[in-house]
Write a structure and sequence with these properties.
With 118 residues, this protein is mainly β. The chain is 0% helix and 53% strand. It has no helices and 11 strands.
Length: 118
């Protein structure tokens, strides 16, 4: 079993930065694909960024050039550096993990709130 715990959310003004972290326990995640998702009120949860076990990354168009996903396999952690934040980035952000060979994210954190004021 894998437990994921996010941290680093908060309130920031537009144009500011935040760095989210996701600490994993229970099993090493070095072989898994990791992702950050977000869900704003009244909207469906969607993928923000994804990083595979080989380090390759995918970003949602809305965050390209502003967000950077990274992983530290030695510390079993995942990060999301968010720069030039916009009010539309306001959401609950979730960390997730899946088997690289699969497509379904099986493990989820509890989420951390990010609020960007204008």
């Amino acid at each position: 079993q894998v437990q994921l715990v996010e941290s680093g959310g908060g309130l920031v003004q537009a144009g500011g930065s935040l760095r989210l972290s996701c600490a994993a326990s229970g099993r090493t995640l070095s072989s898994k694909t990791m992702g950050w998702f977000r869900q704003a009120p009244g909207k469906q949860r969607g993928m923000v960024a994804q990083i595979s076990n080989d380090g390759s990354t995918i970003y949602a168009d809305s965050v390209k050039g502003r967000f950077t996903i990274s992983r530290d396999n030695a510390k079993n952690t995942l990060h999301l550096q968010m720069n030039n934040l916009k009010p539309e980035d306001t959401a609950v952000y979730y960390c997730a993990a899946r088997n690289t060979a699969g497509t379904i994210y099986s493990y989820w954190g509890q989420g951390t709130q990010v609020t960007v004021s204008s």
